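pasting for ref
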Amino acid sequence: MNTAFITLALPIPATTAEFHTTIETALKHHGDPLRWAITRIENQIAHIEAIVTTT
């Protein structure tokens, strides 16, 4: 198992209820997320930093 630090820029969905799911789905493409944080929001784009595990 390896860990990786990744950053993502995602558009903010229309409802906040979708936001968590959108982030989790995007992170799954890179591995299993251990932790993540929204570090910045500008122009309706959320910048995410995360640690994911990969095999």
